[in-house]
């Protein structure tokens, strides 16, 4: 089954150990939403995905990957 993988946890660590709550605040979602996205239990909206990538200064494809 295909899924969207992501590098959010690694990027948070590299960004001074940013918490899920801090990332959520910066993009306008809850900590629980960030946790679910990181774990692959929830696919972010396109807008949220772009916002997350922008926080880390990365292109979208470096943050999110489509795995088949």
Automatic annotation (TrEMBL):
Q: Which CDD domains match?
A: HTH_XRE
The record, for Pfam families, names: HTH_3
InterPro entries under this entry?
Cro/C1-type_HTH (IPR001387), Lambda_DNA-bd_dom_sf (IPR010982)
UniProt keyword annotation of Cell membrane present? no
- Domain annotation HTH cro/C1-type: ranges: 18-63
Say yes or no: keyword Nucleus present.
no
Which keywords has UniProt assigned to this entry?
Answer: DNA-binding
Q: What name goes with this protein?
A: Helix-turn-helix transcriptional regulator
According to its UniProt entry, this protein's organism is Sphingomonas canadensis
From which lineage does this chain's organism come? Bacteria, Pseudomonadati, Pseudomonadota, Alphaproteobacteria, Sphingomonadales
């Amino acid at each position: 089954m295909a899924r969207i993988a992501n590098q959010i946890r690694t990027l948070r660590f590299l960004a001074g150990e940013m918490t899920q709550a801090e990332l959520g605040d910066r993009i306008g979602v809850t900590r629980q939403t960030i946790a679910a996205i990181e774990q692959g239990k929830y696919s972010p909206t396109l807008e949220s995905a772009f916002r997350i990538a922008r926080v880390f200064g990365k292109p979208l494809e470096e943050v999110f990957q489509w795995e088949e």
